[in-house]
Design goal:
Distance between the termini: 40 Å
Radius of gyration: 17 Å
Number of helices: 8
Length: about 240
């Protein structure tokens, strides 16, 4: 039996889908046979981006708004089924030193990166427990591991997100829910980053499809050897 056949009928929700990483996660898990719920704030843009992929349905969802999360995941359950795998890819941040950022920048980054994960996890975990298990993967960043002067607003949110994920992993792992956090150490290849860094060579960037491949492998690990934290970086990245 192929992997796709083993996953037939399972539901994967990808929260925070846009060009690049989110789109690749949607495509990769659809290839694995999942029914995929692609979720982001703007449903019309989602439809244009991934609506033509077999097995994928789009759902508007603002992860920072508990009511929006409740409504979106209720729709997913009604239209696709209960979520077996949650991939939390929503994230935002403002770059700047202490006196260059505002309190609102810290709050918004925390809301999207950490509070959004909290809302989504609270929504899916009860059914995962009822069904005997599940998987939750969270997109992290190097800023979750270290604070630098220009990451004042961003690092505090990613650090909090990682601690939330670790708390979840320690609580839920013994209950057969695999929670993992993958640190993306480098610049993801996307139209926006290519435009911003047009002088950089191709090998400078992390390829979204390669990130999705690694995430897919961890999501399907046998439970005798689960990973919590995975670091992903280009071969030439200094670290």
């Amino acid at each position: 039996m192929s992997e796709g056949q083993r996953n037939e009928g399972k539901v994967c929700a990808v929260v925070g889908v846009g060009p690049g990483n989110g789109e690749s996660l949607v495509r990769r898990f659809a290839q694995e046979g999942y029914r995929v719920a692609a979720m982001a704030r703007h449903e019309d843009e989602l439809e244009e981006l991934v609506g033509d992929i077999d097995g994928v349905e789009v759902f508007g969802c603002d992860a920072t708004d508990e009511a929006s999360v409740d409504g979106a995941f209720d729709r997913v359950a009604e239209e696709l089924g209960e979520v077996d795998t949650l991939l939390y890819n929503a994230g935002t941040g403002v770059w700047g030193k202490l006196m260059e950022v505002e309190a609102d920048d810290l709050q918004m980054s925390w809301k999207v990166n950490t509070l959004g994960l909290f809302h989504c996890a609270q929504k899916v975990v009860p059914k995962m427990l009822d069904n005997g298990g599940g998987t939750i993967g969270v997109t992290g960043a190097t800023a979750a591991m270290r604070g630098k002067p220009f990451t004042t607003a961003f690092a505090q949110a990613k650090g909090a997100q990682r601690m939330l994920a670790e708390s979840m992993a320690r609580e839920l792992g013994p209950k057969n829910i695999h929670v993992f956090y993958y640190v993306v150490d480098g610049v993801i290849d996307s139209p926006r980053t290519r435009e911003m860094m047009s002088d950089k060579p191709d090998e400078f960037f992390l390829k979204p499809d390669d990130i999705a491949e690694a995430v897919c492998a961890v999501a399907h690990q046998p439970r005798s050897a689960w990973t919590f934290q995975l670091d992903l970086r280009p071969f030439g990245e200094e670290w």
